[in-house]
Amino acid sequence: MRLLGVLLAAALVGGGLELWYLHGGPPLGESGALVVVREGDSVAAIADRLHRGGVVRSALLFRVWARAGGLDRAIQPGEYHFATATGVRDVARRLAAGSTRPAVTIPEGRTVREVAALLAAAGLGAPESFLCLARDPEFLVEAGVPGAQLEGYLFPDTYRFSPLMPPGEILGTMVRRFHERFQPAHHRRAAARGMTVDEVVTLASIIEKETGQSEERPLIAAVFHNRLRLGMRLQSDPTVIYGLPSFDGNLTRADLAHPSSYNTYVAAGLPPGPIANPGLAAIEAALTPATASYLYFVSRNDGTHVFSTTLAEHNRAVATYQRGAH
Length: 326
Hints:
Helix content: 40-55%
Strand content: 5-15%
Order of helices and strands: HHEHHEHEHHHEHHHHHHHEEH
Structural class: mainly alpha
Shape: elongated
Number of helices: 16
Radius of gyration: 26 Å
Number of domains: 3
Largest sheet: 2 strands, antiparallel
């Protein structure tokens, strides 16, 4: 097939049809043509879609041209509207440049509910359409989610989705991005620590919620690994908040005593699943904590923390930075 394509391209050029195929295109209707390129689409599938939509005269020539120019590996997923006739060269270049549809950025540490709201704000569907899938066991299995819930596996990144894509395809793309970034080396390091992927992501999500400072993530990870090793409760405020039916921004003593499997002041070990969708840096920290004996940390109220090894040191830090707090 590749040889046939090369011969066809040579015949077209030799026959004086290059301008017609490479620069010109078939006539389009008044509304033009809309072509959607999805994550993971092959160049052959894209070429066929372009041909069926009337965007290019020859699917085969598009494939040959895209591969010859190395553009087949640069094609970006997205929604493309072709208002006027064009040729395979311009089409390939446009697909490689990316869709003009605005990007949707999912920041690190957002929950499934927050991700659903971001997707809805981008015009990609109602929040409930995403949340229903997040609670659907069949979808979780089909999407390849390693845990019992979607939380933790919507990888934070920048995406270009089409509103024509169903919610399942959008969420599935984000889960696939997680598997792309959680590489074999991460699996080996998790196994070496005796942790499942879900346990790693759960710990990473707590680290993500505890600090936004990159240099602190390995230290936070060290505290939690040390506590888990010694059988101490994690006592992480973000896990308590995640397990509350509602939260007004003020964490109280009553909240800390709220009976929940996510309340790590009450329940030992890791919570039953992630509390947010962590980024790669938090995952790396969960797998490679700092070499430190810290067991405690407290906020300085400026985004950074004081780390302590003993309870006496920690109490002094709390008295200094958290007067009047719970």
